[in-house]
Amino acid sequence: MTDGPSYGFDTLQIHAGARPDPATGARQTPIYQTTAYVFRDADHAAALFNLQEVGFIYSRLTNPTVAVLQERIATLEGGVGAACCSSGHAAQIMALFPLMGPGKNIVVSTRLYGGTVTQFSHTINRFGWEATFVDFDDLDAVKAAINDDTRAVFCESIANPGGYITDLDAISKISDAAGLPLIVDNTSATPFLCRPIEHGATLVVHSTTKYLTGNGTVTGGCIVDSGKFDWSANDKFPSLSQPEPAYHGLKFHETFGPLAFTFHSIAIGLRDLGMTMNPQAAHYTLMGTETLSLRMERHVENAEKLATWLENDPRVDYVTYAGLKSSPYNDRVKKICPKGAGGLFTFAIKGGYDSCVKFVNALEIFSHVANLGDTRSLVIHSASTTHRQLTAEQQEAAGAGPGVVRVSIGIESADDLIADLDQALAKATS
Ligand SMILES: *Cc1c(COP(=O)(O)O)cnc(C)c1O
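Above: query sequence and pyridoxal-5'-phosphate SMILES. Below: predicted holo structure tokens.
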């Protein structure tokens, strides 16, 4: 397929990045289960290593199957390039790596995936990096948290675990004014529901483990670059604007322009951190992307039905789904994710912690797992699992208090899902 910006999402999710295999004509993208690629001659090898010619060297850096997925996700997000990696958490480290250094900090939302809260509040400190957690609905607090050592602003578009929607336009105004890149984790929304770059995001990160793959088979991550950030506007981003000592003094921004971040991610990030996506994982994720829009439509349709049913049930205290009129985030659906508020939300069961534990034990169709974005409906009691490492205040701030369960609504028959919730609520509150 030739690149046409006019193709619709449904066309691009199947075709972007792919073409019949040049060697065999195979229509589906083959799994290049291959490590190394023969150089035509020594000059060709040198050109590849100098990044003067783009091609395949070694699969820690680039692989033909992974490359198709990179182009596909970049296209769906409206970015100029992308780098895939081994997991969503790897994508977060890879996104921060060129921007950060010891003593530098990021300003991040309190409403994040539990593992991300842990990664940002503990693990990155070992690199000398720090995260300042702020309520991203409080724009003055976001502004006030930024200082001279801040190198990025980070949030989720549709945020875990409550399905809260971040006002990306308002946040990107703040990051723009401060001359900082905005990194948006678009895992829960996917580019079908939300395109963060259109709302000012500089980089979009994904856990491709979730909706992009959609079937619970492989872990993976991706960093998409908007190509719009001026890394040379000040001296804050020397890895991109100044001679990079880890690549014989190459100036990435001067040399690659809007593709600077993508080239840096591959030539330095994947080369030296080694968080590579394997070709088998890329294959499963490519197959997943082919049906992304169809699945997301059904996820949204089911989530709307189930959230409405739960909200009207007397055994339930409250439901956080942004697609409900009662949600304080309902206004943002039209602006940020006009095709729907996703498939993820939390609800509080009367009876607190004990009722939640009974409830997850009693469910039959819903699986109790630490995952989201599967075709299957999933449930988790965050306070006793994913958000267990957090303090009580962090749990409350993240919307994962002890009386709350998070659901990831699948694409099964809505009536069956409602019947399952009904019988489990009966057991939980009897
Ligand atoms: C799952 C998830 C991650 C982490 O991704 P992994 O692939 O599990 O490493 C990050 N952010 C969000 C929103 C997620 O749902």
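The chain has a mean pLDDT of 95.
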